[in-house]
Amino acid sequence: MSNEPANSDGPTNSSGKQTPDSDQNLLPILGQPTSRRTALKAAGAALGLAAFGKAVSPLMVIPENVSVDEFLQRHYKELTDEDKQKIFTRMEKETKESYGAEVSISDPQPIPGVRYGYAISLSKCNGNGKCMEACHEENNHHRGVDQSYIRILEMPKGTMDMEQGNTTYDHTVPQDDKFYMPVQCQQCDNPPCVTVCPVEATWKEDDGIVVVDYNWCIGCRYCEAACPYHARRFNWEQPEIPAEEVNPDQGYLSNRIRPQGTMEKCHFCLHRTREGRLPACLEACPTGARVFGDLNDPESPINYVLQNKRVFVLKEELGTQPSFFYFFD
Fold this sequence. Notes:
two-stranded parallel ribbon; metal ion binding; 4Fe4S_Fe_S_CS; Tetrathionate reductase subunit B
């Protein structure tokens, strides 16, 4: 005698039990490739808002400071120019409400044929930290911490072993028996951080800059673990910035104020460099240790360094192929 229920025409789940009507509505959604947010939106429509919220609540909580529209926003790469403009307008309004500052959010695109590179003279860098201060201010970092995309390692002369470096020194610089090595995102041509991201929230653009879509990032921190240069930062709390200190010149993929619970990193100040300006850290360097330019331009300052100096990259054996170089004069 069969133990199946009288009405067994519907689909069954993995345990052989018939699925409820709401689960049947979800089967077409779960059975095909889809984006995280498209799936959530479709699931919500199938189950109804109340039932959907109850179903996913053990798995995911939408932060209080994130609107439903923001959470369900499509991937940056899927957005039309009209979509982007609506999002920028919304973000500008939210920034005004939250921080009391008028800002302009733009979306500068890679310049065709340009691939950026950066180099630092370890003979000239003296560890003064002005680059870190400029990064902190330019990129609208949380003022509650001394956050920067740059770390300066004070290294014993005679070694390149980064484990012997110290980033917490507070004495006068330079010290006679030390040299100083700033480390930030290396903008790898083969970036491991991109490979491990489960939701494609980070990718490499045509000009070589690795970017993060803060609205798409789920904060899993896989990219932080994968980066061999400790170049990723996690937003543990909502940034606090006085209105007068907010940098109003903001890029969607660069220095706009990031939400709590998301990853961020150096982006070569793309809101500046794609407009023909230099990175803020370079402009702030008082020793002239920093060199930036187009690797595809044989007459660029960066190519002069590569052709005429003794150049090396960090952790070359890992095959990340950095676009960030170090040299001695």
